[in-house]
Amino acid sequence: MSRKLTLLSTTMLMSILAFAQKDSLNHKELDPVIVTANKTEQKQSSTGKIITLITKEEIEKSGGKDLAQLLNEQPGISINGANSNAGLNKSLFLLGASGNYTLILLDGIPVKDPSGLGGAYDLRLIPMSLIDHIEILKGSQSTLYGSNAIAGVINIITRKGADGHTEANALLSYGTYNSFKGVADINRKGKILEYDVNYQYQSTNGIAEAKDTTGTANFPKNGCIQNAVQAKLGINITEHFKISPYYRYSNFNGTYSNGAFSGASNPFNSTLQNTGFTGRYTYAKGSINANYGYDFTNSIYSFAVYKGAFNHTELWINHTFTPILHLVGGINFQSYKITNSDTVTSILSPYATLLYSTGKFHIELGGRFNHTNRFGNNFTYSINPSYLIASQLKLFANLSSGFRAPALTELLASPPYTNGNANLTPEKAVNIDAGFQTWLLQKKLSITGTYFNRTITNAIVYITDPVSYVGQYVNRDKQHDQGASIEFAYKATEKLSLKASYSYIYGQVTQKLSNSDYTFYNLIRRPKNTINLFAGYQLTNQLFVSTSLQSFGQRTDNSYDPVTYAPVTVTLKAYALWNAYAEYSILHKGLVIFADAKNLTNNRNYYEAYGYSVQGFNINGGIRIQL
Q1: Are 554 and 530 in contact (CB under 8 A)?
Q2: Fewer CB under 10 Å: which end of the chain, C or N?
Q3: CB of 139 within 8 A of CB of 50?
C-alpha cells in the first residue's frame, strides 16, 4: 500500500507540475524574513542556521489539524501519537532527539513544565487558533537559548493586531468522532494600542486509546475537551518604546487508558497559565529588548497531582557597529519549581553572539556562560559560517555545543516522584551541521540539503535493579545521532505550490556498564526514513485544493513484561497516510468553507506506539469568517 500511495502522489505532483509551466503569473521568492536564528530580523539566506518556516497561510489551511499533526508534517520532525487518539500524549522528536532536547518558545519566550516527565512540554496545551506562524530552528541552540535546546528550537509566534482597523475572526468546524471546534478572535493595531483576544473551544468523543486486537473487548472511547484563551496587548509608549503584556490560559481534560492493549476511562485534567510581557526600545543603531514569562502548570491524573512553576527573565541588546558587524548579547535568568517541593533549580546565563557579514560571507561566533545553583558552571559555544554564491547557492556549517539541566522530575525522590537522584549533573552535547540551500528558476525553487551529527554525553537514563525492580535516574550513557535530509519547495506560480522532503535519521547509545561498553540502535518509535509530499493549487479565485502524502519507515518499540517491566523489542511496520484539503471562499474571502480529510485510505493497520489505536479515515469541515 505504501508503494502504491507513493507512486500515486508522485504522479499527481508531476502532472500538476507539467501543467503549471504554462502559467505565467508573478512568483514569490522563497527567501523569507525570520527572527529565531539570531533574535533579530534577517533574510533566511543571510544565516547559516537551518530554518523551517510554517507560514500563516499554511496554518489557515490546516483547519482540521492540531499542532501535533501540523508539526508531524515538517522535515526532520516526528510526533509520536499525532494520528492516534486526540487525547493521547504527543511525543516530540526533532532530528531524532526526544522532546527533552527541544525548546518550545511562544513569541520568543520559553515555555516549560517542570512537573512534566523529563521537563518535556505538553503540545496539547497550545491551540492552533493562537498561532500566526512557526519558525523551526534545527541543531544545537544553547548559546542563544540556554538549556534544553540541544536538538533545536520551535518558536510559535502568536497572532497580533491587524493594521489600522478592528478585525474579527471566527471558525466553526465539525467532523468524525463527534469532533467540534469553535474559535472567536478580535484584534486591532492602532497607533498607540494594539490587541488580540482569542478564545477556542474544542471537543471530541475520540476513539478507544488502547488497541483491541480481539475486536470484541468493547474498550471505552477516550474523549477530551479543551478551552483556551489569549489576551495580548501592544502599547506604543513612544515612537521608540513598546511594551506588550499577555495572558494565556489553556485547560485540557479527558480520559486515558490503562496502557497498551488495556482499555479504560481514567480521568485527567491539565491546565496551563502563561503570563508575562515583552518590551523593546529602538535607537539609531539597534534595540534594547526585555521579556518576562511565567508558566504555571497543573496536571491531575487518577493517581497523582503534578504542579510546576517556571520563571524566565531576559534582557538583551541588538546593536549594529558597522554595516558588516552586529552584536546580540544579553543575560537570562530562569528558575524551575515543583510547587509541592522545596527543590528549586535556577540558571543565570550571560551570552553574546557576533555576526559578521560581507554580503556573501557570513559568520556567527557565540558563547554562553551558565551558572546553576545545583550543578556548578558550564560554557556553550557556536561557530556558524556560511557563504552565498551569486545570490543562488548558500553553503553553511555549524559547530556548536549544548546542555540540558536535569529536570526536577529526575532529581526528586519524594511522592509523586519516587525515582529521582539528587546527584545528577547536566547532559552535554556537541553538534555538527553542514549543508546547502539553493534558489533556482528566479527563486521559485528552493532546494536544501543538510547533514547533522550530534553526540550527547553524561546522558540521563532510567535504570531498574534486576532484583528489587526499583528504578532510578543516573548519568551514564553516550548518545550518538546522525542523519541527513533533502527538501524541495517550488512556488511554480502564484497558484501552485509543491513541496517534497526525505529525511534519514540513525542513532545509537553506548551504555557505560561496569564490565564493558555496550552499543546498540535505540531510537524507538522514530522512523529511520520519512518522506513528505505536498501539492497545493488555487484552481479558481475562490477554490483552493491540496493533497499530501506521508510515508513513515519501519520503527522499533518496547513491549514491557507485566511482572519485571523488562523491555522486549518489537518491530512496527512502515505505513503511509494520504490526506486532502479543500476550501472555497466567498464574500471577497470574508467567508471560507473548508474540508480537511485525513487518512483517505482508512489505514488502521499500523502502530505509532505499540498497543495503541490510530485514527482511520476522518474528516472535519467548517467555515472561517473574517469581518
Answers
A1: no
A2: C
A3: yes
